[in-house]
Amino acid sequence: MSTAMNFSSKAFQPRPPEKGAFPLDHFGECKVFKEKFMKCLRDNSFDNSQCRLQSKDYLECRMDHQLMAKEPLEKLGFKDLMDPPPPSPADKDTKP
């Protein structure tokens, strides 16, 4: 009796993960932002909560240069660092 498992004869086609893997910044387009982020991490004993603004700036640069997929910053955990939307005319108080 054979203990080998028979798998489908189809060749495995690997695909990259949707999130978590990004193209390398070969041209250094976001190097300044990366260096600011890394310096912040070193200066704060690698406590990334102290470097959220630098992280946001770095990710924005990567998205702007197509080094990662565009995502709303709120979805990436930066909702509290976003500028509030301007008030709409309906939100303004009307005076009698």
From TrEMBL:
Chain spans, region Disordered: 1-21, 74-96
Q: Where in the cell is it found?
A: Cytoplasm
Q: Name one GO cellular component term.
A: mitochondrial intermembrane space
Q: Which InterPro entries match?
A: CHCH, COX19, Cys_alpha_HP_mot_SF
**A family per Pfam:** CHCH
- Cytoplasm in keyword set: yes
Name the PROSITE patterns on file: CHCH (PS51808)
Q: Could you tell me which residue ranges the CHCH domain spans? A: 30-63
Its GO biological process terms?
Answer: mitochondrial respiratory chain complex IV assembly
Q: Where is the composition biased (Polar residues)?
A: 1-11
User: In terms of domain of life, where is this protein from?
Assistant: Eukaryota
Q: Does the keyword Repeat apply?
A: no
Q: Which UniProt keywords apply?
A: Cytoplasm, Disulfide bond
> Where this protein primarily resides, as one coarse class?
cytoplasm
Q: To which protein family does this belong? A: Belongs to the COX19 family.
Name of this protein? Cytochrome c oxidase assembly protein COX19
Origin species, per record, is: Mastacembelus armatus (zig-zag eel)
